[in-house]
Amino acid sequence: MSLVAIDVGGTNVRFAMVDSDSSLSAHQSFLCADFATINDAFSAFAATTDVKISAAAICIAGPVKDDWVSVTNNHWVFSKHQLCRDLGLQQLLVVNDFTAQALAQADPAGHGNIRLLEGKSQSQAPLLVIGPGTGLGVSALIPAASGLIPIEGEGGHVGLSPQSDEEMKLFEALAAELPFVSVEDVISGRGLERIYQHLSSGQKKAAPHIGMDALAQEGLDREAAQMMLGLLGTVIADSALMLGCWRGVVIAGGIVAQLQPLIATSAFADRLRHGGLMSDLLTDLPVWLSVDPHAGLRGAAAAFENENLRGRIIAG
């Protein structure tokens, strides 16, 4: 069997062949906007390799519960069963992108992960994996006798919980525009843009430029970035308490990796280890930052071998 791992995000789609030792090779990355369908992107990758692909493990930024899959922040829509037939595959597995991210972090201290906050990791407790990018992904890994069980949820779409006067002003401004204000609306690329627009009284700026200018100098860009990092600290604390993630937290996605130099001067740590009734449970929570650009692909490959996901594989 020749297995390809595919990581479909809101902006990019990444491919890699999974070798017999579970390592990845033949990496390729494309812009989703350059292809009308996922089938077209698959064909473009297949044309770069001489291997006859017989199986695919795909992680998708969006819900994957039903046969029809609509990629969040992307124009691709497809049927899993039809895709399996169209691509001539013997086996196909489709999982949420943060299910894959979680499985890629089975060893939170591995693969070059950076320790952001010290703590005591409880090895038999769940591990939280969260990451702002085009959207905000949230998952967790639960240890079990049958192997790791990944939580497949949509935690990026829970309601925003402002904790300061400035955050309340931001919330009220967004509530006047949006029918529901979710954490993804402020903790993501477009969320950073919204925060900057709010602080600058209406000026617009692309997230990558906000991030670069935030690192370069004091000003509204840095204020926006630090506000987003503080909000992320609150969301991590909420998620860890809800799921009992005493093993720790891994932050994935490119945004926090870019803003890493600002974490120490932001409210991130204080907000994560807040003074609430259960704050003692958060005091020793270790936090790592993932900087592996291939984590989604590694996780997709791991999902294909995960015993608890085996029943989700579609046979062609």
Can you describe this structure?
The chain has two domains: 3-101 and 294-315, Nucleotidyltransferase, domain 5, CATH 3.30.420; 107-289, Hexokinase, domain 1 (3-Layer(aba) Sandwich), CATH 3.40.367.20. The protein is of the alpha/beta class. Helices cover 35% and strands 21% of the residues. The chain is built from twelve helices and 14 strands. The mean pLDDT is 94. The strands form three sheets. The protein has a six-stranded mixed sheet, with helices on both faces. A six-stranded mixed sheet has the order 8-13-12-9-10-11, sandwiched between helices. Strands 5-6 form a two-stranded antiparallel sheet. The chain has helices at residues 38-46, 80-86, 97-104, 165-175, 189-199, 207-216, 220-243, 254-258, 260-263, 268-272, 279-283, 295-305, and strands spanning 3-8, 12-18, 24-31, 55-60, 68-70, 77-79, 91-96, 114-117, 127-132, 136-142, 149-150, 248-251, 287-289, 314-315. The longest helix is centred in the C-terminal third of the chain and has 24 residues, at 220-243. Helix 5 (189-199) crosses helix 7 (220-243) and helix 6 crosses helix 7.
